[in-house]
Amino acid sequence: MKSILWDKGPVVSRPYIYDRVKQGIIDYPIEKMLQEEAPVLQLPNFTEQFNLFTDASGVGIGAVLNQNHRPIAFASRTLNKAERNYTVTERECLVVIWALNKFKTYFGSRPVNVITDHAALTKLTNGKNLSSRMIRWALKLSEFNIEWEHRPDVQNVVADVLSRNPVGNMDGSQISCVALRALA
Fold first, then answer.
1. Residue 174: phi, psi to the nearest 5?
2. Regarding beta strands 50-56 and 112-116, do their DSSP bridges make them parallel or antiparallel, or are they unpaired?
3. Considering the entire predicted model, what is its pTM?
4. Distances (CA, A) of 35 to 38, 76, 102, 182
5. How far apart are CA 124 and CA 140, in angstroms?
6. pLDDT average per 10 residues of sequence, the chain (184 residues)
7. What is the rounded distance in angstroms from the CA atom of residue 46 to the CA atom of residue 57?
8. How high is the mean pLDDT of the chain?
9. pLDDT tens digits, 102-119
10. Which of 21, 32, 77, 156 is least crowded, fewest Cβ atoms below 10 Å from its Cβ?
């Protein structure tokens, strides 16, 4: 059971431990906690605001679409060789564009709240001295009705785990329940 609590991947420099374990509830049975807190995908309510949590790491990108703190969809993929050479800001922008395109059938032209741990992205439209790639991506982002929100890395845990442990280019139906429980 320890492999579920600790990420032993070569990319991660620190272990990921469930919040309850961090808070000191260590003697609570882990199996029971996994069953109680397993992420269950909900159907979208098209009258409510969509939240898109995104994160990028050196090897992958990850995103979670949710409403009312309940997940609607998870997505992640690995970065190709060229994308691994992007700057941190370019990788963070890449994941936002990729996730918006992946989930645009859910929100269409309605506003979507993009939550990122990279503060520079929230000011992308005001940026000066942008590279040609970032200018193209800023134009692409203008197609969407985005409300930006910055949150520290500790409040964006699921997208962070998805980006550090990408499952490739899968859609949600190919991810097993066990994998989702491990990411919770």
1. -95, -5
2. parallel
3. 0.69
4. 5, 23, 29, 11
5. 12
6. 41 43 49 58 91 91 90 91 92 94 91 89 74 88 90 72 66 48 50
7. 31
8. 75
9. 999 998 889 999 998 888
10. 32
